[in-house]
Design brief:
By secondary structure, the protein is α+β, with helices and mostly antiparallel strands. The protein has five helices and 20 strands. It is 29% helix and 38% strand.
């Protein structure tokens, strides 16, 4: 009897153990299944309000090449000031880069030539005064019968010659600054920036030197010269649209058109030069700046186009985020035809009318993957 009771007790304990094990296993499975359930990603309202949303469009395909270039003066709006006389220059109070106004004094040249022009004016004025007095005297004598008609005509001719001589030396003096103090005043012929300065106070000036004293440009319009290699010559034409960017302003695009093509190659660099004229009212572009020039040409076919800000590059593949709702965002791989500035043309992966996230795409891409 005791043996049977003990056996039943052991069996009941075994059943209890098995039941407990099954219960624990079922609880564990429930926990695992609960852990496997992942919550879907949803864009927060604060993030969504900062996003840019773009619609995939079927647009004209644009081909582009990028050239190296450099900003230069607009040579049609540049004035070089050369010395008209020899002497010593002083009174220079402008430096390279200064803005000067038309008529502003840039320097004063003390010159023996100018002193000579002043003396010529004085002598010519004296001769005119004498000729005028002689003419008046001769006319009086002619009226009194003391001088002949020939004498009167000769006095008139001498007067007119003296008058012409004074006018001539005055014009010469005016061309050379108009100063009768023996100084040549160097003035700015236009308003603009001093972009070249080749003299200092005390410098000796010679007219046969060949160097200009100052160069002034208004810089409201500048030229950008771009280098075109032989392989790209066929893609560059007068009137082609260009976007110019610089290191100084990486996010700013200066748009223009090619207005000059130099149909010869540089014998040293083997490149052809093309010119772009750009408005520069804010003086952002400075001469000698390096520039990147993107030349665009419209092709006779269409392609799907999205904002370049929608691209995400990961594991040697480009992706975009297709937006359906704040909680329904799909990662789509795409193939790119070309990227031109803020536009990217694609060959596959999207359909016209799809909506994509065009800003902070990388952040959302990482959140979706994590």
């Amino acid at each position: 009897m005791n043996r049977n009771k003990k056996s039943k007790t052991i069996k009941l304990a075994g059943y209890a153990f098995v039941a407990g094990a099954i219960l624990l296993q079922s609880c564990g499975s429930a926990v695992e299944k609960k852990a496997d359930v992942k919550q879907g990603y949803t864009i927060s309202d604060s993030l969504f309000n900062t996003l840019k949303i773009d619609t995939v469009k079927n647009t004209q395909l644009v081909d582009a090449i990028t050239l190296t270039g450099q900003v230069d003066f607009n040579q049609d709006n540049v004035i070089k000031i050369y010395p008209l006389i020899s002497g010593n220059i002083d009174g220079i109070n402008v430096v390279l880069g200064d803005y000067v106004h038309q008529g502003q004094i840039l320097g004063v040249i003390k010159s023996a030539e100018m002193a000579g022009y002043s003396n010529d004016v004085t002598n010519a004025q004296t001769n005119l005064d004498l000729a005028e007095k002689n003419l008046a005297k001769t006319k009086d004598m002619y009226k009194s019968g003391l001088a002949s008609i020939t004498d009167s005509i000769g006095a008139e001719v001498s007067y007119q010659q003296a008058k012409a001589s004074l006018e001539r030396v005055n014009r010469v003096l005016k061309v050379n600054g108009g100063s009768n103090t023996g100084e040549f005043i160097v003035k700015a012929p236009i308003s603009g920036f001093v972009v070249e300065k080749n003299v200092n106070n005390g410098s000796n000036i010679r007219t046969d030197n060949g160097s200009d004293l100052f160069t002034i440009s208004d810089l409201k319009n500048v030229w950008v010269w771009a280098n075109v290699y032989e392989s790209n010559i066929s893609a560059v034409h007068i009137g082609s649209n260009v976007d110019v960017t610089t290191i100084s302003y990486p996010g700013k695009i200066f748009s223009g058109k090619i207005d000059k093509v130099m149909n010869v190659l540089d014998p040293t660099n083997k490149v052809m030069k093309v010119r772009v004229s750009l408005d520069n009212a804010d003086y952002a572009l400075k001469p000698q700046m390096f520039a990147s020039v993107t030349v665009t040409n419209t092709e006779d076919k269409k392609a799907l186009c999205i904002s370049s800000g929608a691209l995400v590059f990961d594991h040697s593949q480009y992706y975009v985020l297709v937006y359906n709702s704040k909680s329904d965002i799909k990662i789509k791989p795409i193939r790119i035809l070309s990227t031109i500035g803020d536009k990217t043309y694609i060959s596959s992966g999207l359909n016209e009318g799809d909506i994509v996230i065009a800003s902070q795409a990388l952040q959302i891409y990482d959140d979706l993957n994590n």
